[in-house]
Structures are given as structure tokens and as C-alpha cells.
Amino acid sequence: MTEAVTVVMGQIDPVVGDIDGNVHRIIKAAEQAKDQFHADIIVFPEMTLLGYPPEDLLLRNGLYPQIEQALGKLCDELNDIVCVVGYPMMDDLGERFNMAAWIHKGTIKASYIKQNLPNYSVFDEQRYFTEGHQPCVIEYKGIRFGLLICEDIWKISPCTQAKEAGAEVILNLNASPFSEEKHQDRIATLQRRVDEIKRPIIYVNQVGGQDDLVFDGGSFAISSTGEVMVQSPQFEKALTAVKLEKQVDSVEVMQGEQAQIFHGEARIYEALKLGVYDYVSKNGFPGVLLGLSGGIDSALTLAIAVDALGADKVEAVMMPFRYTADISKEDAAKQAETMQVSYHTVPIEPMYEAFEQSLAPLFAGKSEDLTEENLQARIRGTLLMALSNKNGKMVLATSNKSEVSVGYSTLYGDMVGGFSPLKDVPKTLVYRLAKYRNSLSPVIPERVITRPPSAELRPDQVDQDSLPDYDVLDEIIRLFVKQDKTPQQIIELGFDPEEVNKVIRLINVSEYKRRQSAPGIKITQRAYGRDRRYPITSRYSE
Amino acid sequence: MTEAVTVVMGQIDPVVGDIDGNVHRIIKAAEQAKDQFHADIIVFPEMTLLGYPPEDLLLRNGLYPQIEQALGKLCDELNDIVCVVGYPMMDDLGERFNMAAWIHKGTIKASYIKQNLPNYSVFDEQRYFTEGHQPCVIEYKGIRFGLLICEDIWKISPCTQAKEAGAEVILNLNASPFSEEKHQDRIATLQRRVDEIKRPIIYVNQVGGQDDLVFDGGSFAISSTGEVMVQSPQFEKALTAVKLEKQVDSVEVMQGEQAQIFHGEARIYEALKLGVYDYVSKNGFPGVLLGLSGGIDSALTLAIAVDALGADKVEAVMMPFRYTADISKEDAAKQAETMQVSYHTVPIEPMYEAFEQSLAPLFAGKSEDLTEENLQARIRGTLLMALSNKNGKMVLATSNKSEVSVGYSTLYGDMVGGFSPLKDVPKTLVYRLAKYRNSLSPVIPERVITRPPSAELRPDQVDQDSLPDYDVLDEIIRLFVKQDKTPQQIIELGFDPEEVNKVIRLINVSEYKRRQSAPGIKITQRAYGRDRRYPITSRYSE
Question: Which of B47, B290, B296, B474 could in theory staple to B86 by disulfide, Cβ–Cβ 3.0 to 4.6 A?
Fold first, then answer.
């Protein structure tokens, strides 16, 4: 038996396009891994040097010399530790590859080309990369390490290939975005892999928000018998040591840190917080502002924003109109006070009247309809944007997934904003998250949770005047959008045919609105955005 | 020598998702081909039954039984003619294929699976399809036909493979979107192919607008020596006969119709007209409305809209403010009168004052800045949307590519609209198109073309206060966006370093606005939208 080898899982947050910054993050983490854990090896996430997903930045030829330079810098600066990093490479023929390098003592001792290029869901890797075909196994301190990148581990072949090439441990570099059940899926998948190859796997994921994606970290090491021996925390940067021990004819992962993994509402709330925090901070906004209506969506959005950014970075605006209930004003003011955020009230009556009078000659003889409701929402949107323009804070949109699905929101009105935290959160989950947040400390007035939801755009309006109950609505949306069920299949599950057809029709005709909506945070297996790409012009029906 | 065989190029406009409608279009075209040309064979575009690009509709399992049924209907109804159509297929393992079928006398006699699946630019076919590997050659009336689909013809292998399998003529089904130089590219590419295989090729393209794409048709047949023997018209539906003659040991295309192909500004103007016409008509809008400012962008947009839809479907609104020049009001009114469109004037002063007063307490002590300019634009956007909500007409946005590039436009203001015809048209081309349109008949007041461009959002403002001259700006944009040149490379071409860096910085920081912009019509080799996918959060620089 030789001495143990220490591998540190470098769960960092590479920023997309920030090559110099990422080099700095890598070096800092490597030094800390050395100091803190006497690490032999530090493994970073997929595409460490560029961040993930870099999208069409990969098509810029100017990128590749910069990456070469960054690799050179890593070779120069990291001497006492093996560093495994991910990056893009372009060969002389102009073909691009998704790579991992084993850097040691000033040179790249070995490199690996990703073999499985995901091109589904939010992934477009076949737009950029040519796949590799070779394993990469390298021996260090008596242990043979096999390198794999992300999707490679989700299918059996690259794993088996690495084993056959002599790998005793697999090092897997990932950029795996969060969705509700993803962490369990990763563990279950890796358990199948170790069952097939009887080798331990060290799974390193990145952490942090990038536009509509949140990477939840949660790196882990799994033994050759399928046990999670070491677990890094979720939703935060972390360096976590994994001790490997050479045994008679194998290598095994020793028991190590076991960070807590989040479940249920807590897990989603943490993802939303991280998504908001990183969108705001990486894009350099001094803070956020939002319209606080007294309803549940803006109440939850405010809570997330304050928890993510701190109360001093958040500003709430109540913009009442003749249909705004007193309890809405009271509850908005109360939450703003509880959460200690800057709070203003701007009644929209004067603007509404000015629009009404200016439009009167053109609207003569026409009755009131959705136009007047949308006008209220657009005046509010314009006010928020004026405040945003003046003080630099970014507007948060407050629409939830149920509304986004059926188009129950006003384009350029309540859809205004740079980021839309609840875009993938169905209304029923909005309620559960509000209750969860209040269980930590009561910040959302109870009445906001218990009163019937209303857009308050006409007298005595409630959402259920024009929509099915939210538990029914959300289930129809889930079956249609996430599971791709046909209307007939949904009806056969016991739903009212009229409601099913109405909801699906609304989903189909609202694509044009979604196309102009702000990015939000993917938390389900199918979010709107690059995860679900539908034509606007379409006559498809089932 | 046998008798000639007549192949008709079925240049139709399949509507995405409209399977029943597309079956009807196919049958009608086949009957007409039979009646008019005594056609033996009619060849339709790629993915005829579903329309192209169907995007994630392809992920719906409910689609495939409908396609089966549609194929059954074609088999039942088409008896006296061979019909070659494109469609998607799913096998028992859930793999999807991009197919072409040779339908004759009630059955599919042969079928072909597309081999080259484009996954670049606007194409995502590897997201959906598994590639084929086999040629498909079928003999009819003594001639052996090889089937290929679109991208297959852009590389040598599937063509050579078809020839080696005995093909004497290639039938190529396409859904090839328009861009400036595309038609010449297609002909040049096919000339290379026939030079390699010495076989004639019949190239059938679809026609019509689909969201941000325009398919220009322009189907053609090329002889084994590389001559375009038959040319279908561009930008319109057409059935065009191609006569094939069996010669001693080969088959040749006879001389046939030679429709005129558009060049220069005319070509782009036709593409824009078709794009607007189809977006409006396929989505069922009763017409369009737009803000007419007295500037060149809205003037050209109005001309395109009227030429595409007819004056009775178009409404123009002048929304003057204290900074609006008298000549702007005069020129807008004059163009509206010349083009005989419904025209209203709604001054925005009352709304502006209402906002100003309501915001005064919050803006106390802060000086005027972009906020007040954006406010004017957003009031106009809100007015247009109110009119649109009330009368059902869709708002056309009027931003050009130069503005979209550098973010010289107001989100939720002048960016408001369901469709943005000039989104991919640089400002210098806007001028050329305006002059071209006036050369047909003078509709845009001359002064609109000759006066210095201004957003008129503050006193005496002209665009060149804050932007380089448009000829410089557009060239920097072209080099950076289309050609992916680095700032250094652009500067080396002789541009001012300060201007280059400023423009590129503006392009990079405006991604968030583009993400919320309406779809426009791709006319260049790289349009914003799915053709150029950039992260919003990015620190990349070159």
C-alpha cells in the first residue's frame, strides 16, 4: 500500500468570457488546495478557462490565442500541484474541441477531448465542437487517472473505454445546470457507471448563475461500490478534499466531508437566490427594483431579491390605481417595512388619464376591453424603467411560469425587466416557496398568501375568472410542456376537455410574448427559452 | 432514345405545423402539374408536410402519427403522378429522421434519410435528427433518380454516393433560407457538384416567410455541364417544368423557363416584403400599424408594409413632442397621404407631463439624462400598443441593424412591436433601399432621405452626436459581427481605434436588449437571433 493521494474538487464559479479572471480563480484555488489540504491534484469544472456555456463566443477566432496564453500562464504558475482544467481548443483545420488538460510542472502532460457532445435541452455543443474518440489515462503517484468531461459519463462507452485503457479512478469535469431532480439523477447515473466499471469517480461541477442557468455545484466522489464518500456543498464555491488510497489491485475513495444537500422548496429557493445574485453581480448592477403589488408573485420576488442581495440593494415601488385594494397597499407597505427595503408609492391615475384622453378620439365608439388593462400595466412598466434608468438598478420582472405559459401578462407592462426570477416557477410552487420562506422568518404578510390571486386590473377581478384553478392549470402545463403529452392524453388523465384545450391554445398563441421576455432561471426539466424552442408562426395542433 | 420525362419543381409555401393544409397544398400542386405540364414527377421542398423549420415541434410524439396519416392521404389521392415529398419520421427506438419519400400509385416506393444535418447558423438539425447513411436511387420511365435533401448537396459525399448507386439525375429537396448572396452560392455549389459527378441536378426550394427567415424559392435545374437550364421565379410560389431527355448513356436537362432573378436592392426589398406579408398573414393579423416619425427607418418600413399588404391594411401614427421638427410632421403626413394609409397624430406632451410630475419627487435633485429620452420613446410604444390592442393590428418595430447592434433604441419604447422588418438591415442599406423604392415610384419624401438622421429626443440632436458616421459604423459592425474580426484586425484595416472600441463595446453590452427584441428578417449572412447566440452575462473581450 502506497501513501494516500489527495484530490481536491475545485468547485469554483468561472465567469463566462472572463479568461484572465478565471485564470486567477484557478490559481487562487490551487494555492488554497495546496495550503489547506496538501493536495496533490486539483480538478476544476468543464470549460474552466472560458466559463460555461460560452455559446457563440466559441465561434470567435480571437478566442483561441487567448486560451493558449491562459494555459501558458497556468503552466508557469502552478508547480507543486497537478491541475486539471477544461478549455476550448481549435486545431489547424479550424475544428474546435471541448478539452481537459492535466497540467503539471510547467507543461500539459496529457489532454483529453470530450466524446459525447450534448445537443438537446439547453445544450448546443454540436454547433461548436468535433467529438474526440480517444481515452486519456495518466499515472501519478502510482494511480492511473482517466479524464472524462460531463456528458461522457452519462453514457457507458467513454467510461468503459477509460477503464480498458487502465484507469483506476475517473476524474469527471462538469458544467451541469440545476433542475429540480438533477442532483439525484447525477448520483444515480454515476452509480450505474461504477456498477459497470467498478472504479471510483470524482465528479466536479461548477457553481454559479449564468443568464438563465444556475449551476448548483454539489461535486461529489463516489466509491467503486456506488457510495457517495465525499459531498461538496450545493450553491456555493467550495474546495473539498478527496483522499484516494491505493489498495492491492484497486484504488478507493476514503470517507470525507459530507455537506448537506438541499431538498424540496429549500433547494429551489437557493437556486433562485443564486441565480438572482449572479445575474445582478456579474452584470455589475448596483441593485434591483421591482413593482410590489400586494400580490404573491412580487412578494416572493422581493423576498428572494433581499435574501440574495441584501435589503440595501433592493427598492420596491407600489403603483396603485383605482382597482388596487386597500389590503394590497397595506400588505406591500408592510412587507417593504419588514424587509427594510426602500419603498415608494407612485399612483398611476394621472398617467392613465392622460393616455385615456389622448386616445379618446381614436377609441370613440369602442368599448373597454383588455386595452385598458394593458395600459395600466404598461404605465407601471414605464415608471419602473424610468426609475431604473435614473438610478441604475435593474428591474426584476415578477411573472411566474403559469402566467408566462398562458400569456397572462402584459408585454412591455408587467413583463418589463432585465431578469425574471420566477419565469420557470409555476404558481402553485410560488405559494409553496412563499410558505417555505416564511417558515425561516415571517417576511411575507400572511394575507398575501391566503387571499385569492388577482391582477387588479378591473373591479373585483380574480385570476380564476379567466383561468382554471392553479393546481389544475399547473398540472396541464406540466403535462403539455414538460412531458409533451397530447391534449387527448391529458384529457384521459381526468382533466376537463374544455379546460385542457383552452390552456393548450393559450400556451401555443403566447409564444410571441415569451420570445420578448426577460431571461429567467431554469428550475424544471423544461424551461422556456433555449430549453424549449418553438416557432411563433405555427398552425400545429394535436 | 426514349421519350422525355417531365419533372415539375413544386415551389410551394408549406406552413409550419399545418399538416392538413400542407397535404392540401401538395395535392393541389400535383393536380396542377399534371394538368398544366403533363408532369410525370413533382418534387417538393424539404420537410414539405410539416414546413421548415419546425423547431421543437419535432420533439412532440403526437406529431408522428399525424405525419403517417398525411402520407397515407397522399398515397390515396395521388395516382397518376410520382410525388416526392419531405417529412419527419420517428422509428420504434424513438430516433427521428429527416426523410424524403417517392410516392407512386398508392405507396411509398422508396424513401431516403438525410445524411448531412446542418447544426450551424440558424440550423439545429442535430438537436432533432439522426443522420442516414444510404443512398436512394429509383428508376422511373427508364431514368434512375437519386434523392438528396438540402445540406446533402453542399458536401461531396452524398452526391458521389448517389452517382455510384446509379443515379442519372439528382432530385434535391431544399428549405434554404434567403440571405444576400445565397442564390449565387447555391448555383456555384451545384456547379461544383455537377463538375464532380457529371449528372444534372434539380434543386427545389420552398418559398415564403417563417418568423425570422424568408425562403426565396428560386428553384432551378442544372445540366451535367453546369448550366442553369431552368430557373423558377424568386419570392413567389411556382410550378416549373423540367424536361429530362434520356441520351445514349446519360440523362440531360432540356432548356426551359428562365425566370428573372433579383439583384442588389431589389432582391432585398422583395425579401423584406415577403417576410412581412407572411408573418402578418400566417399569424392572422388584420393589418399593421407603426409609428411614423418623419425619419428614414419608419418611412421605409411604411413603404415595405404597404407594398406587402396593401394600403388598407396599414395605419401610421405620428406622435410628436416638443423636439419633433415641423419638417418631420410635414414629411410623415405627406408620405401617409402619398401611400394612402390611415394616419393619426397623437401628441405625447400630456402623458410626458403626467409622468414627469409623478416622478418629480423621486427624481428630485437629479439632472436630466437618457431617462427622459427613453420616457418619450416608451410613451410612444405604449400608445402604439394601446391602438394595437384595440384594433387588432400588429405593431411593426422600425429599428435597423445599426441601432440594434449598438443598442441605439429604447427597450419597450421604439423596440415595441410584433415584427421588426429592418432588424437585419444596416442604416446605409436603409438609405439605399429607400432610394430604390422611390425609383419605382416616389413615395418617401426626398427630404427624409437627405436630412441628417435624428432620434429627436432632445433639442438639435442628430445621430452622429453619439455614433460614428453610418458608413463607418456599418462597416465596423459587418467586420465584427459577420466576419468575427477582432478589434485589432479592424483597426489594422484603417479604422479609428477609439471608434472601433466604442462600437464593439456597445455591441457587447446591448445583448440584453436584443434578447427582448421582436423577430426580424434575416437578410445577411449573420443576423441577430438564432443566427448569433451570445451570452448576456459575459466579460469576453479581444
Answer: B47
* Residue B307 neighbours by CB under 8 Å, 6+ apart: B269, B273, B437
* CB of B407 less than 8 A from some CB of A: no
Do the beta carbons of residue A432 and residue A484 sit within 8 Å? no
Question: Which of A20, A342, A538, A542 should we substitute to test contact with B (largest number of B Cβ atoms within 10 Å)?
Answer: A538
Compute the distance between CA of residue B23 and CA of residue B48 in angstroms, rounded to an integer: 8
Contact yes or no for A374 and B386 at CB 8 A? yes
pLDDT of residue A533: 97
Q: Does A483 touch chain B (CB under 8 A)?
A: no
The residue-averaged pLDDT of A332-356 equals 98
Contact A538 B363 (CB under 8 A): no
Pick among B213, B382, B383 to test the A interface (most A CBs inside 10 A): B382
- B359:A533 CB<8 A: no
The full set of domains in chain B, from first to last, is: 5-261 (3.60.110.10), 266-463 (3.40.50.620)
Q: Do A359 and B375 touch (CB under 8 A)?
A: no
Q: Do B370 and A389 touch (CB under 8 A)?
A: yes
What confidence category does residue B2 fall into, taking pLDDT thresholds of 50, 70 and 90? low
Distance of alpha carbon A38 from the chain centroid: 33
Q: What is the pLDDT of residues B218-237, one digit of tens each?
A: 999 999 999 999 999 999 99
Q: Is A114 a catalytic residue?
A: yes
Whether the per-residue pLDDT at B1 is higher than 50: the answer is no
* Contacts of A277 by beta carbon, 8 Å cutoff, 6+ apart: A209, A308, A309
Q: What is the pLDDT of residues A141-197, one digit of tens each?
A: 999 999 999 999 998 899 999 999 999 999 999 999 999 999 999 999 999 999 999
d(CA A190, CA A169) in angstroms, rounded, equals 13
Q: How confident is the model at residue A199 (pLDDT cuts 50, 70, 90)?
A: very high
Which chain A residues are closer than 8 Å to B15 by Cβ? 537, 539
Q: Is B165 left (phi over 0), alpha (psi -120 to 50) or beta?
A: alpha
Q: Is the ipTM of this complex over 0.90?
A: yes
Instruction: Examine the residue annotation and report whether B337 is marked as an active-site residue of this protein.
Output: no
**Is residue B46 annotated as a catalytic residue, yes or no?**
yes
- Rounded Cα gap, residues A311 and A340, in angstroms: 6
For residue B350, give Cα distances in angstroms to A262, B113, B369.
53, 63, 20
For chain B, say whether A386 makes contact (Cβ under 8 Å).
yes
Which residues lie closer than 8 Å to A361 by C-beta, 6 or more apart?
none
The reply to whether A209 sits in an annotated binding site is no
**CB atoms near residue B532 (< 10 Å):** 17
